[in-house]
Protein: DUF1593 domain-containing protein
Organism: Aquimarina aggregata
Amino acid sequence: MKKAYLLILIFCSTLLIYANDKHRVIILADMGNEPDEVQQITHMMTCSNEMDIEGLIAVTGKYLRPESKEEYRRVNHPELFIEILDAYAKDLPNLRKHASGWPNPEELRKVVCSGQKGYGIADVGEGKSSKGSKLIIDVVTKDDPRPVWIVVNAGSNTLAQALYDYKKEHSKTELQAFIDKLRVFENGAQDNAGAWICSNYPKIHWIRSNYQTYAYGGPGGTDGDITTNLGPHYWKPYAYSVTGQNEWLIKNVMTDHGALGKVYPERRYHGFRDGGLGFMEGGGTIPWMGLVNKGLFDINHPNWGGWGGRFSANKMPDFWSRHVDIKVDEEKETPFYTYREVSDHWVDLQDGKVYNNNYAPIWRWREAMYNDQICRMDWCVKPFKEANHHPVAAVNGDDSNSIIRISALAGETITFDASSSSDPDGDELIFKWWVYEEVGTYSGKIMISEPQQSKTKIVVPTGAGGKQIHLILEVKDNNAIASLFDYRRVVIDVENIFVKQESVQVD
């Protein structure tokens, strides 16, 4: 039964471009700088069925560079990628029992290489091409329309070299087409090349994270304090400390969890407090984590939020590196523009604590992310019946991974039905509908009827014409191992037309 009135735009979902595709990703990481890089990449391999990994490039950064006082940290270490891939290959037969889409380890080994050997922009220029810079060009220029998500988990001078080389050999139009395919997430601004790139290639899509990037396990609070501000406590029953996090990892990741569990190290390094431990996974997990949930996170809209954090809708000037020496260099490139972190308001329902800060866009998903890690590590060793698997969130019969976008009229009542959502293990499903207020452009309150039922209605406010509303469906399974989540984002574009009506419903 459909109800509609004159001038009403009938409810219809339009999938956003690329929403159903896997995202292409290149990782630049200072492998060997400290153990968190190995933690991050090992974790990523348990999620690798959700993305197309097209480059694993060992690079330099602030701490791993030829000038380091420690010999091991003077050179790149691509062999650490290979060790992780060897472990992944051993666990792959069991991983395939739980999900499809896993990459071939032999193909992944082919995209492992080193980038620039020197530090920063000083190692960029004529005759300084590296295997890593060439790989970036090869990936971006493939006959593939999808953008390339480039994670910079160290210095960005290898990407700078790729841009330098491509510009030298191509027209302005070709260069812009190359830049248009890049989606860069820079973790911590760990050399002076990022600001140089953004200054010299001002149209580049560049996210800079100085805070949220550390929020998977931290951030640790004030500089040097890694024990007192670790964010919401979702590694219980272990203590609220980095030692407690490490004990959680020993149980759920490192012990009896296959070859990947064996290569996953403690983040134990001199200079850290609490017995030499640092908070888990450092700053390099969040930059790729958003790619896991395509029904929630959109790489073209950094302000929409998701497991990869939330950033400004427009690029902002001169978001400096937190490293004083790098900031001095960046001041020579001013103005440069990047997407920068923004804050969320979030209430942690486990203890009622309220967060209003720029870590909350990550912390609000922490329970789901940690449970995801628990269950994916189980996939390395357990049979299907002894593991938990993700529910499938469906909206009005659409059970794809896509973000849904619809048009609506001010004053409408719109019905949404998630009753066709499912769970591969037959688990009970728990539903939650909520409006992501910080993302939408309508500042008033929006009524949701029965937000914890599979079916709900929202009333589009009469004053919302020309605005955008983001409705999130969160589906959680009830499983004793650890509850897993799936999401669907519904983007509602409200037309500048008001028609009084009872409701709009689509079966």
